[in-house]
Amino acid sequence: MNFLHTEIGSARDNQRSPIHNWYKFTAGFSYKFVEEIIKLEGLKDFDNAEIFDPFAGCGTTLVSSQKEGVKAVGNESQAFMFDVIKAKLNWTIKRDRVNKYLITIENYINKNLFDVESSANPLLKSLYDFEKLEQLYLIRNSAEVIRSQKYRLFFKLALSQTLHKVAIHPIAVPYISRKKILSNNNSVWDVFSSICKKMAEDTESLDNLIYSKIYKQDSRKANRFIKNNRCNTCITSPPYLNNLDYGEVSKVHTHFFDITSSWNDITNKIRKKLVTGATTHYNKSDFNKKKFLESDFAIDNMEIVTGLIETSVNIKNKAIDKGGKKSFDLLLLFYFRDMYLVLKEIRRVLMQAGKAYLILGDSAPYGVYVPTTKILGEIAMNIGFESFEIHKIRTRGTKWKTLKHRHSIELNENVLILK
Predict the structure, then answer these.
(1) What is this structure's pTM?
(2) Which of 398, 393, 392, 394 is nearest to 410 (CA)?
(3) Do residues 197 and 96 lie in contact, with contact meaning Cβ atoms separated by under 8 Å?
(4) CA-to-CA distance for 205 and 410, rounded, in angstroms?
(5) Is 121 inside a domain boundary?
(6) Is the distance from CB of 351 to CB of 233 less than 8 angstroms?
(7) CB 3.0 to 4.6 Å from 367: which of 87, 131, 315, 407, for a disulfide?
(8) What is the 3-state secondary structure (H, E, C) of 315-331?
(9) Model confidence over 312-363: pLDDT tens digits?
(10) In a domain, 366, yes or no
């Protein structure tokens, strides 16, 4: 693992790589990690090699595998991100057809109106100049009626990028940053058409064979379309135990594309389909200790669960001392319960001699250290993995030391290898 570097767990490399940079995703990891694992495992030398990613996100593993000519399959439960990945995996796009569609879309914009005041989502009205917002909605409406699904998703993804570039405030840092004003004097059409042409250009130098497949699936449940013992390798980065709400991170896009329109929509349509990684994913009343201790997770991991409950009590006491209102004590228990289910799915999908590579971060809710990577390795052993290794990528969390209520514990970002 001598290829690990401090940025391997971030998406910075991806911003300079075609296809990977088609969508700006806050919590991504480097495509170079996937390439190195493919090389390390010699996957290009096996005709039946296949990679599994239970948290496909914006498609880093699947896109990288396809670029390398290695089969891959992944799960993504968010409808919007599912469409992003499908668009990023389709390289049969033709530049001349993109240009013809652009003419059709531009003609639609010039002939139609959109009533922003009465029809636009309130959040969007606070983030965009009304004239630009009208243009964005008109592009959306014209692109949605394109019959070809691959071109419809292509333009949807291009428009998703445009939303970032013409907003008044940054909209993914990971949440909306209203303290910063963006300079964006270019017209919506100029930005959108430029992105479309660049995306079409990116695909021209690539093999148009499709090696990767994405399913709209929650990895806490078995995907019936992926057979047992199908894949050689799993490459993924699960949600960290750090209270990042993936449902809220994408809300500008899900509101714009009418997937959601409110906090309740995000909870019911998105959060409930995700591994519990934030306190916004549940109500405190959702936790029943008796049922928790009777769950398969607790039965299969009794010693681990006993320790987690002790840690949970410690976190709750620390929260009282600090005047904290977040129920990190319950988040801890829900998170490991959900990850147990995901690890079972990874074990089911992998071949008998398979390996899983997971990029993970340790945690310290209210200053109580939780060795997340080690605990997940131990859970994996209890469900049938033979062994685990932990390789440190970097120290994290230090940049927040100046914050008044922030803990001062240095945390690690690691690669967990399950054999």
Answers:
(1) 0.95
(2) 398
(3) no
(4) 44
(5) yes
(6) no
(7) 407
(8) HHHHHHHHCCCCCHHHH
(9) 999 999 999 989 999 999 999 999 999 999 999 999 999 999 999 999 999 9
(10) no
